[in-house]
Amino acid sequence: MSRSPLPQAKPIPVREAVSRAEFERDILPAYAPVVLRNQVSDWPVVRAGRDSDEAVAGWLRTHANGQPLETFTGAPGIGGRFFYDDTLTGTNFERGQASLVDILDRLLACRIEPQAPSLYAGAAVADGCVPDFAKSHVLPLLDPRAMARLWIGNAVTVSTHYDLSDNIACVAAGRRRFTLFPPEQVRNLYVGPLDFTLAGQPVSLVSVKNPDLERFPRFAKAMSHAVTADLGPGDAIYIPPLWWHQVEALSPFNLLVNYWWNAAGAPPSPFEAMIHSVMTVRPLPPAHRDAWRAMFEHYVFEADGDPAAHIPDRSQGVLGRMTPTLARRIRDFLAAGLRRG
């Protein structure tokens, strides 16, 4: 019996470099990924990259300090895919530390090795290892307080995951392929452990490049909703919160700069609320879970409108307009309940 071909991801919409006003008016409210072509093409490291990898490394080396960065190193056999081991209780790579200069030297040397190890350092605060990086590499789309982070490595793959915050990722050197899935595709992505992760967020167990559809048959449904784009130096991409994304570096030397921020403020993490619900709601009998689903729909997702509209403002309690005082009150209430448990 022949198997139906895997659906191909659709292209992500592309905009040329946009202004902050255009970004806030047109892109943020749409809650969908957008490629921002040539958004950071004037950055010094991007200009250096037009000459060579050595020029990018030289610019970074000149401005770097000796701060150690967390590194991932994998054997050639992992094919650049940092992942779990076969038992899902360990990983197929080693964690270590190295300075940015040492990482750059290793990456340049790896380009000529026929069986080079996979090497990666990510989420490094830019100004921490390259002082004043943010001053010379400005992203006017965002508040200047949004922190630049560096991701550097060779041809490695970051497995499909999501971020809790809004994200703009800027390719500074090399090429990267982004494949994204809408949040509702979580049911088709076969997500791994929630509390033992590779680098922070849970990841899909499916390889986008070589999916095992016998083990993960619903992934074909996820691919029918996937979108993708290849980005080169100077390009950027906006990724909304909870959009799942795999990031594949396509070159032997790559530098990415990203910015996370919370467009809707910075409340306590909804992820922790979900984990609490896993403990308290998931074990209930089905009829009870259905009852709590109705409560969540009403009070959290406001399926019927404001659930406190019929209560005077002064008496709305935890359902009132969220303020720092009310947030503290709710945290104290929840902490007391966890202590009792």
Describe the structure.
With 341 residues, the protein is α+β, with helices and mostly antiparallel strands. The protein folds into two domains: 10-261, Sandwich (Jelly Rolls), CATH 2.60.120.650; 270-340, no CATH class. It is built from ten helices and 14 strands. The strands form two sheets. The chain has a nine-stranded mixed β-sheet with strand order 2-3-12-9-14-7-6-4-5. Strands 1-11-10-13-8 form a five-stranded mixed β-sheet, with no helix packed on it. Strand 2, helix 1 and strand 3 form a beta-alpha-beta unit. Helix 3 runs antiparallel to helix 4 (100-110). The protein is globular and about 65 Å long. It starts with 9 loop residues before the first strand and ends with a helix. The relative contact order is 0.15.
Q: Which keywords apply here?
A:
single chain; 341 residues; alpha+beta; Jelly Rolls; nine-stranded mixed beta sheet; five-stranded mixed beta sheet; 23% strand
